[in-house]
Amino acid sequence: MELVYGTAEDGSLASSVDTDDRIKPVSAGGEIDESNLRKFFITNPGDSDDEEGSADEEEGDAGDFEDLEAGSGSEDEKSGSGSDDGASGSDDDESEEEENEFGLPADKMKKLKNKFDRVYDSDDEDGEKKDFYQQQKDVLQKYVDDTRTEMDELATINYRWAGEYVKVVIEDMPYEFMQGLDPTLPIVLGGISNEEGLSLITLRIKRHRWYPKILKTGDPIVVSVGWRRFQTIPTYFMNDRIKNRMLKYTPEHLHCSAAIYSPYIQPGTGFCAYYMKRAHNFGVAATGTVLENSQAIDVVKKIKLTGLPEKIHKHTAYIKRMFNTSLEVAKFEGAAIKTVSGIRGQVKKAFGNNGVFRATFEDRIKASDIVFLRAFHTIPIKKFYNPITSLLSVTYMRTIAEIRRSKNLAVPNKKDSHYKPIERVVKRFNPVRVPKALEAELPFKSKTKQVKTNNPARAVVLDKEDKRVADLLGQINLLHKDKTKKRREKVQKQKDAYAVKRRAEEAEADARRQKKRKTFFRREGQNQKTPNVAKD
To answer: Which of 2, 22, 472, 534 is deepest in the core (most CB within 10 A)?
Structure first.
């Protein structure tokens, strides 16, 4: 295809123009303005204004001459004059290299001259300067013209400019696409390069505020990013600065991370996610950005293993039903364990091949204690990638809820998964018995003390003499209590009277201090006014 962008008005003139930027074609016909002719010459920095003016006048006279009888001969003269100008321009360059009074290299002087031409040769024919907008338009137009010129020279490249209509032939199109083609709808074409390999992608995702449900780990979801649309199984997690902890559901109003298996995606690319079956009024389920591409992502999940004591010997015990093989025990050697009663311990070595292991504790445990181990288990990322090339015939993976609804299956009900009230039996421990020989050597504060009980005393029958003495002591105690009560009341009255007296004295002292303060500041104010009056 030939693309014609424009034709020159004078072919002979275009062929005679040299590629040098300093030589510009001039039409010999018609009158030439002196200011317009000045653009096509570059004088030496040392030339005076008189020499420039004389040169301009001579060239102006030559430009006014026109031989109407010569015909084509005038054109030859024009081409010859152009070549003479090119020769004179080369002589000027040599003279500049030899006679450079600024002491600059020739290539730098050439750049300065070109810059001078760009700044001062942008005047119109009337001598008026162009505004900034027009100058920028000229620069862009010159860039486009230079690009077109360079591209026209490369005849081997089959290129098309923006805005042209082209015909694209795509082979091996699916039958469903042509059957459901709607010519009124636009089709967007694009290309993908360097994004063919598959890897694990880390996303920063957030549930859309208008989507009514939160997202669940393991449910297939469709991700639309760039030119791709594919279905994958995400694993949501949250980073706590130490590890990536798996989330069963996405947060309500916060961002979280997700790991998927897909082709390489450039970090920072935005995406949106949705489910294939639209069960709600709003379709976009989540949005976010791509963080990184990696070959491995460690996502962990908290687990709690429980076991029972099999044998107990002092601070050592053999635990069963926590592991199944000795290999599992080997992976958890040195792990911290704990009983329900709070006794801490540590996993030592496997005992046999049935998962029984030896453990040590900080105290002797009981046979009824339950031993548990808290750990984190690495969750493998599901490598599922289902590209969606056409919406007319899509084979996609369904969620677990959709499969259950289609087959009328109930949600599995596990009794162990139900929340139950915790009921713990209070354990009664036997009292500590210290041998008598050891207790005799202990200090007094560590010896066993006899604890007094609040058992009621037995009733005692008094005779007449003891009854009389008891009555007398009761009367004496009553008089003592009454006398003590009166004394306390008297002391309290004295304290109240003294407090009233002190408050009155404090109020009087505050009044005196306030009066003294007013007098002092009044005198100070008068002393400050007196010098000002004297000055006036």
So the answer is: 22
